[in-house]
Amino acid sequence: MKRSDIKILPNHYDTYINKVEDIELTEALEKYGKPFLHAERDKLIALGDKVYAPGKWTAKDIIQHIIDAERVFSYRAMRFARNDKTLLPPFEENDYAVTAEANKRNLEDLLEEFYSVRDSTIRLFKSFTPEMLVREGKMTSGDISVVSLGFAIVGHGVHHVGILKERYYGIQ
């Protein structure tokens, strides 16, 4: 399914979904997976633990956040694809960031974890039938389809890499 196949863009997730070009979901997950983040590797290493303003996340925090969010979104997609009708709560991304302690980790290790998580996500979404992809589930922020969650995963990563480019790469 392509992004244009999404009938209703869910609130809050539309920002992420609209960052993805109109290509097949699996193609988007692959294109904006390892090659996309690997292209930023040297710039991320050069950043180290710098932040563009006090209280903001480091590049390592951002990569960890992308990983955590992808796991949460994938879990939601799996539940909804399996026709689980349970209302799912949000996750507190700032609490996750504080307790993850990403800055104690090596950037290479974080990138390898991201690559592994993305590979798993691709396999999960490839396992869904067309019927499963259009199933919807309930979250406190509203209803969302499985395919929408897939494109949200991609767009969420694109969004945060965009923030790195916009606000972080110019830091000396």
Descriptive overview:
With 172 residues, the chain is mainly α. The chain contains nine helices and two strands, in the order H-H-H-H-H-H-H-H-E-E-H. The chain has one domain (3-168): Four Helix Bundle (Hemerythrin (Met), subunit A) (Up-down Bundle). It is 60% helix and 5% strand. Strands 1-2 form a two-stranded antiparallel sheet. The radius of gyration is 16 Å and the shape is globular. The relative contact order is 0.24. The model has no long low-confidence stretch (mean pLDDT 94).
Can you give me a brief rundown of this structure?
With 172 residues, this protein is mainly α. The chain has helices at 14-17, 25-31, 34-38, 41-47, 59-81, 93-100, 107-127, 130-134, 146-168; strands at residues 136-139, 142-145.
List keywords for this structure.
172 residues, mainly alpha, two-stranded antiparallel ribbon, single chain, globular, 9 helices
The number of helical elements comes to 9
Structural class by helix and strand composition: mainly alpha
Distance between the termini: 42 Å
Characterize the overall form.
globular
Low-confidence stretches: none
Helix percentage: 55-70%
The main sheet comes to: 2 strands, antiparallel
Question: CATH topology, which one?
Answer: Four Helix Bundle (Hemerythrin (Met), subunit A)
In angstroms, what is the radius of gyration? 16 Å
Number of strands: 2
Q: Under the CATH scheme, which architecture would be assigned?
A: Up-down Bundle
Mean pLDDT: 94
CATH fourth-tier homologous superfamily: dinb family like domain
CATH structural class: Mainly Alpha
Q: How many structural domains does the protein architecture include?
A: 1
Q: Roughly what fraction of the amino acids lie in strands?
A: under 5%
